[in-house]
Each structure stands twice: as structure tokens, then as C-alpha cells.
Amino acid sequence: MNVEIFTDGACSNNQIPSLREGGFAYIVPANGKFMVMYKYEKGATNNQMELKAFLGALEYIITNGYGGCPVTLHTDSTYVIGCFSGNKVKKNQDLVRHIADIIARHKFSVSYNYVRGHNGHRFNELCDTFAKQAIAEKNTEVKSLIIE
């Protein structure tokens, strides 16, 4: 069984560290439907939020019994894809290493599917909307809702 996950991150004031606000969202399978989960983090960059979305999705599928399954990550982040496809990681090394350790420890085989952002892909658009909503709401706890 291949598990498909969809992710996106957002950041306001990305160029001004003292004002940065980040949000991320991910969509995961949930009992024949899908669940969108999203969260806010003060001070985070856009790339950190893209990575945190991937991490959150992996943690969710592990908790829900999908460890060891093939995974397809659908993302509009060439940064995330590059971090796990051989590009040299210069920033966020600890976070990238943590995700790589989870992938190895749970024996995930991950395929990366680039989705052009803001191009009408339903789940990418939803992730984008909820990542921005996380910033607007400033919810520091993960929020979730079921979608059809």
C-alpha cells in the first residue's frame, strides 16, 4: 500500500527574522478519507515550515500504523525534494537529519512528486490555505479536520 501525503509551508516576513511567522499544513489518509493538519511557529522560515510539514506527515503515518509503507510526498517545495535527493544541505541540517533518520528507522521508501504551487492542485491548494490560516490564527497546537 502506497501512502500519499501532501504538504506545504508558509511564512510571513521571511526576510525579517524578528518578525517571521510560519505555518505548515499536511494532508494524510484517515480511514478512507483525508485529514488536514496545520500548525503555527513563531520565528520560522518558509523552508523550515516546508520541512516541518513533511515531518508532521511522517509522524502521523507512523502513529497510525503506516510505518514501512512506500510513501509518496506531493510538495511544491523543490527545497524539500532537494534535501532528500542528494543536494548539499546548508541550512536546517538538524531538521533534515532528523527526518532522514525517521525515514531510515521506519524503513520508508519515499518518492518525491513535485507539484507546481498555486496551479489548481486540490490538496496543494488546501495545504497552502491551511498553512496561511495557521499563521493568521497563531495556533501553536496542531489543529486538524477531516476532508472528503
Description of the structure:
- The chain is α/β, with parallel strands linked by helices.
- It contains four helices and six strands.
- It has helices at residues 46-63, 78-83, 93-105, 122-137, and strands spanning 3-12, 21-30, 33-42, 70-75, 109-114, 143-147.
- The protein has a six-stranded mixed sheet with strand order 5-4-1-2-3-6, with helices on both faces.
- Strand 2 (21-30) and strand 3 (33-42) form a beta hairpin.
- The longest helix is centred in the middle third of the chain and has 18 residues, at 46-63.
Largest sheet: 6 strands, mixed
Q: What structural class is derived from the secondary structure elements?
A: alpha/beta
Low-pLDDT stretches are none
Pattern of helices and strands? EEEHEHHEHE
Strand proportion, as a percent range, falls in 25-35%
Name the helicity range. Answer: 25-40%
CATH class, anyone? Alpha Beta
Mean pLDDT: 93
Distance between the termini: 20 Å
What is the CATH T-level topology?
Answer: Nucleotidyltransferase, domain 5
Q: Helix count? A: 4
